[in-house]
């Protein structure tokens, strides 16, 4: 256990030192923000059956883009074993004299507690945008879309052992989006010539493993470091200007993120959380627009 705590402490140090690296982000687009996949989610609702959470986040993305978003989430406990979650998200991007904003996704999940330490999650990510944003009648890359535009299946399992919290999950697209961005549509002087083409984008799935360990500072404050590897299962694909489908090389592979959660319990019903995350390891090609060098999230929750 001492070794495990040392490794997590080292991860925090790396987290604070590595904000210049880019990797796949998750706090504003992915399944790692699902309530049951978050650290300490077993503590979300104890004496109460309902919880509402709202939060805002800010991040720095690739290609000189800043991202800002917010969300509202409802958690309902239906007895001792079954719970449901609903989460609505938005996203805004700004950079290279281009700004965009829109609804992102609706997450719907059911959680089943099989034992004191074991839980399962089944859910879906429902897109509220088709990833077809344009500027001056030209399609924009995924970096300026408020959603991946895919309807995704979400499966997960969580297990707790001696306070070590483990989560494994799959997010698999069942549909694809309507993005039509090709770099060849833009002049050579355009900043967008450096982006990856995603016309008729075919995005593959992701799997994650989260390992976290809560540390109680006092009766009201808890610090939880977390390591989050995400593996993109295979190379994505797009259709070029000649209507030929091609692989996006090096878009398959591992990214490794670190998160630190700081929770402050105002009282039994109210709490505030600060969540910060940066990457340690990157995929070479990330056409989905989830690149983040740094992201911070502030959340308020109330139970009733």
TrEMBL record:
| Keywords annotated in UniProt | Signal
Signal sequence segment: 1-23
Question: Which PROSITE patterns is this protein grouped with?
Answer: PROKAR_LIPOPROTEIN (PS51257)
Top-level division of the source organism's lineage: Bacteria
Q: What is this protein called?
A: Transporter
Q: Which organism is it from?
A: Chryseobacterium luteum
């Amino acid at each position: 256990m001492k070794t495990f705590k040392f490794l997590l402490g080292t991860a925090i140090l790396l987290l604070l030192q590595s904000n210049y690296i880019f990797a796949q982000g998750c706090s504003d687009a992915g399944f790692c923000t699902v309530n049951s996949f978050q650290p300490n989610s077993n503590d979300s609702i104890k004496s109460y059956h309902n919880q509402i959470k709202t939060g805002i986040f800010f991040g720095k993305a690739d290609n000189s883009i800043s991202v800002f978003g917010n969300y509202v989430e409802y958690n309902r406990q239906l007895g001792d074993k079954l719970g449901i979650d609903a989460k609505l998200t938005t996203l805004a991007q700004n950079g290279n004299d281009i700004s965009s904003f829109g609804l992102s996704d609706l997450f719907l999940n059911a959680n089943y507690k099989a034992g004191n330490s074991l839980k399962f999650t089944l859910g879906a990510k429902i897109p509220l945008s088709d990833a077809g944003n344009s500027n001056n009648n030209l399609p924009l890359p995924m970096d300026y879309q408020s959603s991946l535009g895919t309807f995704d299946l979400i499966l997960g399992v969580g297990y707790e052992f001696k306070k070590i919290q483990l989560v494994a999950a799959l997010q698999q697209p069942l549909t694809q989006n309507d993005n039509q961005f090709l770099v060849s549509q833009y002049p050579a002087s355009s900043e967008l010539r450096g982006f990856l083409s995603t016309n008729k984008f075919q995005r593959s799935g992701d799997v994650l493993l989260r390992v976290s360990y809560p540390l109680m500072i006092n009766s009201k404050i808890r610090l939880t470091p977390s390591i989050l590897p995400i593996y993109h299962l295979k190379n994505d694909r797009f259709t070029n200007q000649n209507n030929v489908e091609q692989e996006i090389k090096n878009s398959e592979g591992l990214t490794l993120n670190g998160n630190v959660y700081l929770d402050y319990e105002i009282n039994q019903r109210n709490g505030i959380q600060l969540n910060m995350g940066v990457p340690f390891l990157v995929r070479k090609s990330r056409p989905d627009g989830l690149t983040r060098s740094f992201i911070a999230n502030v959340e308020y929750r109330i139970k009733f």
